[in-house]
Design a protein that fits this description.
This protein is an all-alpha fold. The chain folds into two domains: 31 residues; 75 residues, no CATH class.
Amino acid sequence: MNPTEKQGADSFTRKVGEKERLKLKAQRGKKQSVWFGLGMFGLVGWSIVIPTLIGTAVGVWLDDSYPQTFSWTLTGLVCGLFLGCMLAWSWVSKERKEINEKEDKDE
């Protein structure tokens, strides 16, 4: 066997080994249903909606109490939306970090 064929065989062996490792890891991992995924999707959605609604409500109250040339409602909506997106991003990043650490530990 020439060096090129040997290198190709080693590469193939590594790829097969990696796929086997991933399949075994998936079998060991806990099974999560579709409902779990939908629940996580809903949790991220609500973490954006709640601050947006609160910001809008505060903006409506400010518009009634302290009228200005600009809209407090739109300002509150944008601030609430920004805060909600930052909270969701932070939560998703934290979850991803925990998943990566768990995968590294399993290897």
